[in-house]
Specification:
The protein contains 13 helices and twelve strands. It is globular, with a radius of gyration of 21 Å. It has two domains: 126 residues, Aspartate Aminotransferase, domain 1, CATH 3.90.1150; 222 residues, Aspartate Aminotransferase, domain 2. The protein has 360 residues and is of the alpha/beta class. The longest helix is centred in the last third of the chain and has 24 residues.
C-alpha cells in the first residue's frame, strides 16, 4: 500500500524564495552578483545587533528562553503595550502557520487579495479552509469588495498594508471604516511588515490603539525588513490576551533562537540605523521612479522597499536575462516584476542591466 498524505496537500506547492546569490554565481560563472529580489535591507543590520550576537555566542549550547522574556519586555516598553499582548515567532511565516492552526477548520472561508503575500493562501489551504479571493483595484486592496465577500462561513480576513508585492497601501480612515463593518466574530489579521518605510501621512502609522477598540484584530510586525535581521527569523504579533494565550497553545517551546532574541533587543535601540535605512530607501525609490518614467514603464506607487513594475516583456524571461548579468529580481505574473530598492550603486546597476535586457 502506498503512503497516504493529507488531501489538503494535493494542491499546495512549496514556497519559492528569492534565488540565492551563490546559486547565481555558480550557475553563470559570475564573481559579482547583487540581489534585489527579497526586500532585504541593503545596509545590513545595526552594528549593535552584531555586537549583541558576538556577546551571546557562549550560549549556543543552551536552549533559548522559550518565553522571549527580555525581548517581550523591550517591545512592551517601546510600544507601551502589555507583555501579555505580545508573542514572538520565527519570522512572520511561522506566525501565519500558527494562526491557521489556531483558528481554521475545514470549510471555513478565509478572505484575501488576489495579488498579495502567498503564505496567506497556502496556510489557509493547509488546514482545509477555503480561500475567498478578492481582486485588487489599481493594484490596491479592495476593502469594500472584501466586506461584500463576507458570509456566515467567514473565519478570517488577511490584510497586508502596505501590500507585498505591489507596495500599495490603504489609509487609516479606510482601515477604521473597514474594521467598523467587520463582525466581531471574524478575525482580521493586519500585516504591517513594511510599516516603517511608508512616507504618506494618511497611513495608519500607529495601529496599536486599534487593539483596544477591535478585539478581533491581530497585528503582525517583523525584524526582517527595516531592521535587517532576515537571517535570524524573528517577528512579533500583537493581539488581545485571549488570542495570544491560545496561539501559545500551538507554538513550539523554543521557536525564537537566542541570537535572534538578543539581536532584536539591540536593534530596537538603534534609531539612527532605522533613519539611515528609511532615507536611503526614499532616495532609491525616487531614482527608480525617474528611470522607469524615462523608459515609459508602468509601476505601482510604492510605500515599501520594493517596486512592482511592468517591464513589457515576460517577467520570467527578464528574470533570467538579468541573472546572466549579475542582478537578481523577482518575477511576478505576466510582464510584472518586483524589484527591491538597494543602495544607489545597486539601483544604478539594475537600471543599466534592465536597459540592456529590454533593448531600450
Amino acid at each position: 500500500m502506498s503512503i497516504q498524505f493529507r488531501e489538503e496537500l494535493a494542491n499546495l506547492s512549496p514556497y519559492k524564495p528569492g534565488k540565492p546569490i551563490d546559486d547565481v554565481k555558480r550557475e553563470y560563472g559570475l564573481q559579482d552578483v547583487i540581489k534585489l529580489a527579497s526586500n532585504e535591507n541593503p545596509l545590513g543590520c545595526s552594528p549593535k545587533a552584531i555586537e549583541a550576537i558576538k556577546n551571546a555566542l557562549d550560549k549556543l549550547a543552551l536552549y533559548p528562553d522559550g518565553n522571549c522574556t527580555l525581548l517581550k519586555e523591550a517591545l512592551s516598553k517601546k510600544l507601551n503595550l502589555s507583555v501579555n499582548k505580545i508573542i514572538l515567532s520565527s519570522g512572520l511565516d511561522e506566525m501565519m502557520d500558527l494562526l491557521a492552526k489556531t483558528f481554521f477548520k475545514k470549510d471555513n472561508e478565509v478572505i484575501m487579495a488576489d495579488v498579495t503575500f502567498p503564505r496567506y493562501i497556502s496556510t489557509t489551504m493547509m488546514m482545509g479552509a477555503k480561500p475567498v479571493i478578492v481582486p485588487l483595484v489599481d493594484w490596491t486592496y479592495d476593502l469594500k469588495g472584501m466586506l461584500d465577500a463576507i458570509t456566515e462561513k467567514t473565519k478570517l480576513i488577511w490584510l497586508c498594508n502596505p501590500n507585498n508585492p505591489t507596495g500599495t497601501m490603504f489609509t487609516k480612515r479606510e482601515l477604521v471604516d473597514f474594521l467598523d463593518k467587520v463582525p466581531e466574530n471574524i478575525i482580521v489579521v493586519y500585516d504591517e511588515a513594511y510599516n516603517e518605510f511608508v512616507t504618506r501621512d494618511d497611513y495608519p502609522r500607529n495601529s496599536l490603539p486599534l487593539l483596544d477598540k477591535y478585539p478581533n484584530i491581530i497585528i503582525l510586525k517583523t525584524f526582517s525588513k527595516i531592521y535587517g535581521l532576515a537571517a535570524l527569523r524573528v517577528g512579533y504579533t500583537m493581539a488581545s490576551e485571549e488570542i495570544i494565550s491560545n496561539i501559545n497553545k500551538v507554538r513550539g517551546p523554543f521557536n525564537v533562537n537566542t541570537l535572534a532574541q538578543v539581536a532584536a533587543i539591540a536593534a530596537l535601540e538603534d534609531e539612527d540605523f532605522l533613519k539611515k535605512t528609511y532615507e536611503m530607501n526614499v532616495e532609491g525609490k525616487n531614482y527608480l521612479y525617474e528611470e522607469f518614467n524615462k523608459l515609459n514603464l508602468k509601476y505601482a506607487p510604492s510605500e515599501t522597499n520594493h517596486i512592482f513594475v511592468n517591464v513589457e516583456r515576460n517577467g520570467n524571461e527578464v528574470f533570467v536575462e538579468l541573472q546572466k548579468r549579475g542582478v537578481i529580481i523577482r518575477p511576478m505574473a505576466g510582464d510584472w516584476i518586483r524589484v527591491s530598492i538597494g543602495t544607489m550603486d545597486e539601483n544604478r546597476l539594475f537600471i543599466e542591466k534592465l536597459i540592456e535586457v529590454l533593448g531600450k
